[in-house]
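Board notes, transcribed. Complex of a protein with zinc ion.
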Amino acid sequence: MKLHNLIEDEVFNAIDSIKNEVQVKCLCEKCKLDIAAIALNNLSPKYIVTEEGYVYAKANSMNYQFNTDVIAAVTEAMKIVGKNPKHD
Ligand SMILES: [Zn+2]
């Protein structure tokens, strides 16, 4: 059994969904994780207990509804990282 934060899935889904709408200079793995970290620090976690290997995102994607708080936090994080990427 594992603890899993559902908001992590939502944040990564949100990044993929709005990356074409929000101007981001760079979306490399580093910047993507920086965006996710900033957004997740501004959101309340939603922990569930999962079976080992159970991929919640797959089951969830069938009826996926974006949380507006998640979208707002990701949009804000994209602006912060876009202005100041933490690499050359
Ligand atoms: Zn980058």
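The chain has one domain: 4-83. Helices lie at 6-18, 29-41, 56-61, 68-83.
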